[in-house]
């Protein structure tokens, strides 16, 4: 006689109430925790940080690292080439993390500092930008500058981002390196023009006419020019 085999089913104990059984949920929770930690490292006020979405946190983190890298290189070069008699003062100004005069100088300017690369991306904006056009730093850094400029003024702005747009006909054969290395040619990199920027402040009609004064320069470590 043949014995019938019993079908033995594997019995799994149900997960405990406090035990997390969803891998996707655990992944989301870890990701959210890392993003919260990353956001806490950004140099913005808490009320700004709480409004940031995930993509904004990543965008601003990348921008902050790029800006930090750029200024570290430039400040290091400033110390290396400073006169020996001024070295100590320069070291205090650039290297002391508790020195706050830099931000005070920016706040006292009649305007704000804007760095735009040749890809028309806002590389840096001083926090005083909010006083003039109503946008916070976090709204515009690492974003296209054309989102802020009146549609009729975008071509004008784009033209001034081209390094050779002010070269006279007799100097048209100059290369960028030749212009950068010769002080006599530095005037060809200077810019002074007017454009209309979007403005969120109540005392404007949606746009504010701004005088843009600056010059083109190399963004060290960023593989591009900046204005």
Automatic annotation (TrEMBL):
Q: What is its main location?
A: nucleus
Q: Name one GO cellular component term.
A: nucleus
Instruction: Output the NCBIfam families linked to this UniProt entry.
Output: sensory_box
Give the top-rank taxon of the lineage listed in the UniProt record for this protein: Eukaryota
Keyword Nucleus on this protein? yes
A molecular function (GO) term: nuclear receptor activity
Which residue intervals define the domain PAS in the entry? 98-162
One GO BP annotation is: xenobiotic metabolic process
Cross-referenced PANTHER family: ARYL HYDROCARBON RECEPTOR, SPINELESS, ISOFORM C
Extract the SMART domains matched here. Answer: HLH (SM00353), PAS (SM00091)
Keyword Transcription regulation on entry? yes
Give the compositionally biased regions (Basic residues).
1-13
Keyword terms of this UniProt record: DNA-binding, Nucleus, Receptor, Transcription, Transcription regulation
Positions of the region Disordered? 1-27
Per UniProt, subcellular location reads as: Nucleus
Q: Which CDD domains match?
A: PAS
* Origin organism lineage: Eukaryota, Metazoa, Spiralia, Gnathifera, Rotifera
Q: What is the protein named?
A: Aryl hydrocarbon receptor
Domain BHLH: residue ranges: 15-68
